[in-house]
Design brief:
The structure is a homotetramer of 331-residue chains. Chain A has 331 residues and is an alpha+beta fold. Chain A has a single domain, classed as Chorismate synthase AroC (Chorismate synthase, AroC fold, 4-Layer Sandwich), CATH 3.60.150. Chain A contains eight helices and 15 strands. The first copy, chain A, has helices at residues 37-46, 90-93, 105-111, 129-142, 161-171, 198-206, 228-231, 303-324, and strands at 3-4, 9-14, 20-26, 63-64, 68-69, 72-73, 78-83, 147-155, 177-184, 212-217, 250-251, 254-255, 260-266, 276-280, 285-289. In chain A, the strands form five sheets. Chain A has a five-stranded antiparallel beta sheet, covered by helices on one side. The first copy, chain A, has a four-stranded antiparallel beta sheet with strand order 8-9-13-10. In chain A, strands 5-6 form a two-stranded antiparallel sheet. The longest helix of chain A has 22 residues, at 303-324. At the A-B interface, strand 1, helix 3, helix 6, strand 10 and helix 7 of A face strand 1, helix 3, helix 6, strand 10 and helix 7 of B.
Chain lengths: 331, 331, 331, 331
């Protein structure tokens, strides 16, 4: 449900306009030094407040409530809590006459029989990713010889994100984008065949990020238009080095030592400043609708640090899984 | 590892050139009538033997070894075994001097320390999907009011699959393709927020299919180039009917009542008839290499029934998950 | 690790002398009314302060941080936080020269490589059960037609708990006890064969309660001394009513409609007021040792409400599991 | 459902009078040498045919269908199949007028809505443990520095099992017994706090063995009658050696380096040669009933090797779990 991973378990909770959001990490190795400073950089990357971004800005200082003692992880479950501060729920109470198009309002209302916390998307809000980014900081520390680097490589169809954002501002409409991620330092052999493959597990994790609608590894959809001799990565030596990396670092679901490379399609922010048509329960008609609240024009811009965190959480689990399988003596 | 799902568990096993392949389904509802005939259509769709396909053709009659009694499922674990018949392992013993490009040979050799069954890809072979297709037949019976329909919509960049295949035959090279899948009859509310979202779970499952390198839902990567007002699906009535289905039937990870629509990028068959260059362990040099064995020019052509099976297995689990959450009395 | 259940997931966290303890419940049905009053009775039953009990008494008011909106569960993860208030960590800092006999100090020190929070047992403390009791209140509400009733039926070998406690006070030593639990209102058919049997799952849960060293169902160990004709419960009618309940309500791991009955052996409180001998790291010798801190003479006395909570959490999961397995139409 | 463990997964399937029984082991380390001879000793220990035992005797040669190549495990899922040979289903067809007391017939009939394979207990049969014993052989090989030794220490209340069996033969009635198990060579630190504690996980596994009705660790139920100073195991040195082992090798759920010791209560064989009274559906009355089929007088006698196998399967998982939690560099 709201958790992921087999060994290095991640459980999230919280709502956009409730008391806060958080995460529990289980099976954290003991002895990892942690301080408030460790979180500042990634938490700031996730925060709003940039040009074209939501004016809702919060301190977002993660409180490490459990699992840390004398500045180090203890090995017990580590709970991170991030209080909500800058909430204006009134914006949402007014909007109950419509299910906002592109949002989870309608499905949540049916699924939870009207009991859902609807304010700002409630539990479906991207606000939940604050806890994940904090958790990702810890995963990155565990995998200290790996690097996780994601960036926005396209906004509104333009490879210069700033120009894409200008296009959105000019159109007074929200826009989508592409986020690309590269993981380096990955040894050969992570991932398990079939459903715990590197691709399966990363894809599962990435689609948990709000607004992600597609993922491709290496050559991805372009691979579908290539010949086999073009796509195959020729081996150059017994260590598995290759001429190219069309496979995106994964063969048979297992890491092959090349950088793991994937791209994500991010849909336009569902909340757009432009008027839309939609069904209104009060009037019983399809009519003009204007979104209340404070929103980003392009959510892709805040996604990279979330993508890195998700990737680090999953890869840590696959790392633990790979090194778990040994007997007490040489066999 | 080699299993999927939370409640309706699917565990696979087997190798391409061993005794056979199989699957265990756990938590099957009792009382589902099953006969050999039920499997013929889907098993035939998965089989090779078509134009441009591998000449390795096997009877592939699934044996229901356990969990069936007097022609009905009992509710106990249902084990399906499909014996391998038409294996020519000699083809593979000869090829140990190279790790075949685009295959799992290299990663398997490192991960399993040389103990892997390397014949025909061993456990990494698409042969394993025979068991999944058989399992999918049962899942489709459980979800009898749903429909799962996948088709090849592009081969070698051409929307007419036959022309794409001609292109491959002319080039004497393998090619990739696109498979599109539509699931209808899905009620509102399947899927759970975040990692058990419909998209997360379907994506995890689809990347377990050999050769899949990308997935997109609804407008997918095209969504990244759309404005919010273009992409959002306007509601027309209180039942959630919409003008369009850019979301591909999923909002906030939850099914919204529209058909679930996704596309998969399938890479070209790694085993291509054309000569390739790769590293040879015997000679210690990068040199010409020619694949032995019997292979499809385009694996995408056999994928649709596998995609349907995977989808049905996952959606059954999400269905069970959704209906599990009720107390013994109205609350 | 620190979680239980397949569908109705329970994740705990916290330490005895840290900021607090808590629990996340996932897959809670929406619409369950919850108020602070709901928790008072069970939380009070768990609290210390009785005769022969620890003088550490805390308010223990569970804060429902997430998953509740307008007085009802929303269906999103429900996080409960119970702050620690009355902690005297200094007691423990002084005691680091010895690993307290009967406690987890030594194993935690080895397992967590010296990084464990050792104050008051840290994460191993029975303090963690405060969160579980709060979670149990919610499970009992879900299973409103069941009843869970546990009681202390023996202390220090005496069937009158009060007399047993007098014996402990007179001996100035801690004592053990027996807790018996009866679950009624259970329909036929809960539990799954083998490892998700009612007995397997309840036993797993009960051994997570600190100090539990044995469990038996129905006639239990006495059954090992009975003849088959004595032990078997004769059926009286087609509804499965029986003359006796030696099976304790479970056959083949599945509930049979009779009350589920089990007993737990609770060891004496590891922290006894009497002097003990143990190894001292400072002196390098085995020498006299006296426990600091505030402790119960008999932890069994506070166990019943914890036993009920654990049972309710597990049975809710089995209930959800049983009702999950249905297709969308009659088959 | 019918599987156990987090990493080293064990999935069982099969029926007493169907085609056979089996098991899939997932996440087996590659490179373990395996031959048919490895299984003979333990499979023979499980088999019937002794004095007072069932005359149903089968070859029970486990077929390693997948996951083994050139005499070694490959690391892929290992499927073991044990065909049923000596089945006399006719015995059971005749008995459908009664639900046999002490068996799962009634609960299975309700739970599976009449679709269960009722012959010889079907999926609930102890026949399923044949696959587990075979799996246990592999687990013991993985944990080659551990030893698992279980023995019958009481039959029909007598500490000499042979005399207990004579008592049963004389009474023409089935009897119960006690099985004791000792695991040595266990390092400090296996098990996780709470539900993955050594006690929790072993208890869960043991109650999956048909006829087990109780389990106690170390002093067990006797601990409930001891003083703290009697029960606590005094430490003798910094390595954790202790004067006694009342804890049974487990403190706070974690192994403490002492042998892990536990006892199981096994109920009398439900199928007793003596006549019993029970409800008859044909006559609509409670009347005399006599069991058909071939059965042991005391199932405890065949249990030790099953207990060892279950213990080895669980401890392997805890071992893998413990060694999984490390980062790629010293932290």
């Amino acid at each position: 449900m709201n958790s992921i991973n087999t060994i290095f378990k991640v459980q999230i909770f919280g709502e956009s306009h409730g008391a806060g959001v958080g995460v529990v990490l289980d099976h954290v190795p003991p002895g990892i030094p942690l301080s408030d400073e460790d979180f500042i950089s990634d938490m700031n990357r996730r925060k709003g407040g940039q040009k074209g971004g939501t004016p809702r800005v919060e301190a977002d200082i993660p409180e490490l409530k459990t699992g840390v003692f004398k500045g180090h992880t203890t090995g017990a479950p580590l709970m991170i809590w991030i209080a909500n501060e800058n909430t204006r729920s009134g914006d949402y109470e007014k909007q109950r006459d419509v299910f906002r198009p592109g949002h989870a309002d309608f499905v949540a209302n049916v699924k939870y029989q009207g009991f859902e916390d609807f304010r700002g998307g409630g539990h479906f809000s991207a606000r939940l990713t604050a806890g994940l980014v904090a958790a990702g900081v810890i995963a990155k520390k565990i995998l200290s010889t790996f690097s996780f680097e994601a960036a926005v490589t396209e906004v509104a169809g333009l490879t210069d994100p700033e120009k894409g954002l200008e296009k959105a501002i000019a159109a007074k409409d929200s826009v989508g984008g592409i986020v690309s991620c590269t993981i380096t330092g990955v040894p050969v052999g992570l991932g398990e065949p079939f459903w715990d493959s590197v691709e399966s597990r990363l894809a599962q994790a990435m689609f948990a990020i709000p607004a992600v609608k597609g993922i491709e590894f290496g050559a991805g959809f372009e691979a579908a238009r290539m010949f086999g001799t073009e796509h195959n990565d020729t081996y150059l030596d017994p260590g598995g080095n290759t001429v190219s990396n069309h496979a995106g670092g994964v063969l048979g679901g297992i890491s092959n030592g090349n950088p793991i490379i994937f791209k994500l399609a991010i849909k336009p922010t569902a909340s757009t400043p432009k008027n839309q048509q939609t069904y209104n329960h009060a009037s019983g008609a399809v009519e003009d609708f204007s979104v209340k609240g404070r929103h980003d024009l392009c959510v892709a811009l805040r996604a990279p640090v979330i993508v890195e965190a998700m990737a680090a959480l999953v890869i840590t689990d696959l790392y633990f899984l790979a090194q778990s399988r040994r007997g007490p003596t040489a066999i």
